[in-house]
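Q: Joint fold for the lines below.
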Amino acid sequence: MDSALPTTQTRNAEAAKTEPRDTVTITDNRTGKSYEIPIKHDTIRAMDLRQIKVAPTDFGMISYDPAYNNTASCISRVTFIDGDAGILRYRGYPIEELAEKSTYLETAYLLLYGELPTATQLKEWQYHIVHHTFIHESIKKFLDGFHYDAHPMGMLISTIAALSTFYHDAKDIFNPEARKKQTYRLIGKMPTIAAFSYRHSLGMPFVYPDNDLSYPGNFLNMLFRTSETRYRPNPTLERALDVLFILHADHEQNCSTNTVRGVGSSHVDPYCATAAAIAALYGPLHGGANEEVLRMLVEIGSVGKVPDFIKRVKAGETKLMGFGHRVYKNYDPRARIIKKIAYEVFDLMGKNPLLEIALECERIALEDEYFVKRKLYPNVDFYTGLIYQSMGFPMTMFPVLFAIPRMSGWIAQWEELILDPEQKIARPRQIYLGQATRTYAPIERRG
Ligand code: CMC
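A: Joint structure:
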C-alpha cells in the first residue's frame, strides 16, 4: 500500500514563512518553540504532535477527539463519501449507478476486490457464495437454544461468533486462501442464519437454501416458504431487496466498521471481529435506527399528531429517528433511492399506512429551522422500515436486513486493515483526570 503520510521534520519557523509548502507550523506559546509539521491529504499525523513538550521528560502533546469527530483512523480505498454534497461511491462507482445496474453479489465483489468482475469472475464468485450457504447442523441446535422471543440481532451476533468455533482455519488471517474461504462462508451464511433466526422466533421449521435462486431470492425462500414444493420469489420484491442490499453494503468508517477494524486489529478471526461489528450495528443510533423509526411512527399514530411530536423533538425530549448523520449534512443519497423503491413495493403490496406520517415528519422537518440549522436530513433508515414492513418482515428483523449486506463491507475493510503495514493494535490514549496517588485506608477508617 502506498501510504503514507510523511513523518515529522522540525524546521525553523522563519524558513517556513518564505516559501509555500505542505506543512503547518505550530507555535507552543508555553515555550515559544515552533514546530513544522508535514501535511499530506490535508492531514497531519497525530504522532507529530508528540514532539511538542515543555520539558524533555514530558510525555508530549496528544490530540483529544471523543467520538472521532475529526480523526482519520486509516487510509482506505473502499468507499468515498462527500457528506456535504451527498455523494457516496464504492470503489469510485456512484451508488446511484450501482443501485440501477448492479446486483448485490457483484457489488460485494467490487467492494472486496476493487474492480467489477468479468463474466467468468462473477460466475465463479457466485458459485463460491452459493456453495457456502448451508450451515452445520450443530448450529441449528445452537439456534434452537434461544428463547422464542429472542431478538434476531442477538441471535445473529452469537451465531456468527459461534462460527469461529467451527472453522479453525479462520485464525490463519495472514493466509489469503484462508481469508477467501471465510469471506465465502460469511457472505454465504449470513442470510441462512438470519432466516433461521426468524423461523425460530415463529416456531416454524427451518427452510434450507435453494441454490438455484438468486442471493436475495434464496433469502426470501428461507424466510417465507411454507408448503410450496418450489418457492418462487416475487421479482419486484427480489429486486427491491437486492437494491437495498447494495445500498447498505458499505459506508466507510462508521461505528460498526470502526468496530470490525478495532477488534480485528487484535488479530482475532473474522467471525469474532464481524460479530462485534453486528453488535455495534444493533444500537439504535446505528443500524437499529430502522426498527426505532417504525416504533416512532407507530407511537405518533396519525398525521395530525406529527406537529406535537416535532415539538417534543425540538424540546430535546426525544429524537426524530432516521434523521441526522455524522457525515451527511445533506440528503443521504441512499434515502433518495430508497424512497423510490418504497413506492415500487407499495404499488405491489399496498401502501403502508405509516407512510403519510413519515412524509409529514419529513415535510415539517425539512422546513423547520431546528432541523435546517443542524442540517438534519432523512438518512438511510428513515424509509427502509416502511418497505420491510410492507414486504412482511417483523420490526425486529429490520436491523438484520442491514447487517446481511454490510458483511461484505466489513470484510473488505477488515482485509484492508490486515494488509496495511501501518496498522497496529488499536489502542487510543486518554486524558486522565482521576485521583492522584492515594494510600489504601482500612475499612474501619473510611467514610
Ligand atoms: N433528532 C433530533 N435532533 C437531532 C437528531 C435527531 N435525529 N440528530 C441530531 N440531532 C441534533 C443533536 O441533538 C444536536 O443538537 P445540538 O447541537 O443542539 O446539541 C445536533 O443535531 C448535532 O447532533 P449530534 O448528536 O452532534 O450528531 P452526531 O453526528 O453525533 O450523531 C446521529 C449522528 C446519526 C447519531 C444522530 O443524528 C442521531 O442520533 N440520529 C437518529 C438515529 C439515526 O437515525 N441513526 C441512523 C444513522 S444512519 C445509518 C447508519 O449508518 O448508522
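Q: Anything notable?
A: The longest strand covers residues 23-28. The chain has 18 helices and five strands.
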